[in-house]
Amino acid sequence: MKTLLNLCASGLALGAALALPAQAEMLKELGTPEGALSIVAWPGYIERGETDPAYDWVTKFEEKTGCKVEVKTAGTSDEMVSLMNQGGFDLVTASGDASLRLIAGGKVQPINTALVPGWARVDDRLKEAPWHTVEGVHYGTPFMWGPNVLMYDTTVFQTPPDSWDIVFREQTLPDGKSNTGRVQAYDGPIYIADAALYLKTHRPELGITNPYELNEDQYAAALDLLKGQRKLVSRYWHDAMVQIDDFKNEGVVASSTWPFMVNLMQADKAPVASVFPKEGVTGWADTLMLHTDSKHPTCAYLWMEHSLTSNLQSDLSVWFGAVPSVPEACTDGSGQQTAEGCAANGLKDFDKIWFWRTPTSKCEAGGCVPYHRWVSDYIAVMGG
């Protein structure tokens, strides 16, 4: 598995391959808070106690700053990019398969880290991460990171499954029934990387070294696997709550998912658990990025600082099943998270996770299939 150094090198190479627009003017100092803030976010990321009163990191921010927070949730990175392209938002919690596209498209502006005191507390593994740093310029502040795990029904799997095989290959499950119609796959082109990661182990002759850098033969093999998976899949998921309902009421027994859904279901006493399969996992390292045309930049910077406080990082880490970008949030007692909880969420597994990033033709391997092909071909796969 790649080390962070190699990931940074490949990310910088990717950044160099992008045709970067002229940089927007970096904010030099904070002004008077504008009274409002609009954020595009993953479900569960911006909580004000409405889902669970124990999780609220919006109310006190609004009271302290006067910045009224509005949230638009998005279930996929492509949806986030589309919303940011439309405009009217200040911040986005972008994953690596969206962040570089937003940078290349001129939709986000460089961040003046001197205006974010919490930057000093950020995990050193994230400060220069290639999904928000291009040519030495930071385009966001790290927010949360974590794995895409395999969630399974414990009444079906008495012994935890150890492979993604149960969602990719037709088979009889331990309860004596087929997996056809009982599994799910992610509703996003980046899921092609999950198929490539599976093939990296099971078809070594393909020579896959990076699931985001696929030549034509490797890419074709991943598509073939996904086409075969199509007849097994009951739903391509992107809505966290819909997936939870499918596990509870629609007979779904296995799927890729975020720890967020695992945590919610286990809190509701649902019979589910999750594992890191032997083939490895993809994952996400999300970054708060500021729209080039933000109407509320001071409120946005105040939120970026707020997002790096130990209390928010600690509670969000517990709520979402993620790892804080501020390591001290695991142990300083500021919130609900503990060292054991961070370890369970993957704190020590950073180098085992293939973090989402936008595929490009100008990759390390040379001649790789670019993302626009992933988009069109995955739509065709889902359509059958």
Provide a quick synopsis of the model.
Helix content is 35%, strand content 17%. It is built from 14 helices and 14 strands.
Produce the secondary structure layout.
Blueprint: H1 4-17, E1 36-41, H2 59-65, E2 68-73, H3 77-86, E3 91-94, H4 96-104, H5 124-127, E4 133-134, E5 137-138, E6 141-147, E7 149-153, H6 165-168, E8 183-186, H7 192-202, H8 216-229, E9 233-237, H9 240-249, E10 254-257, H10 259-267, E11 272-275, E12 281-290, H11 297-307, H12 310-320, E13 323-324, H13 339-345, E14 353-355, H14 371-383
Parallel strand pairs: 1-2, 1-3, 8-9, 8-10, 12-14
Antiparallel strand pairs: 3-12, 4-5, 6-12, 6-13, 7-10, 7-11
Helix pairs in contact: 3-4, 7-8, 9-10
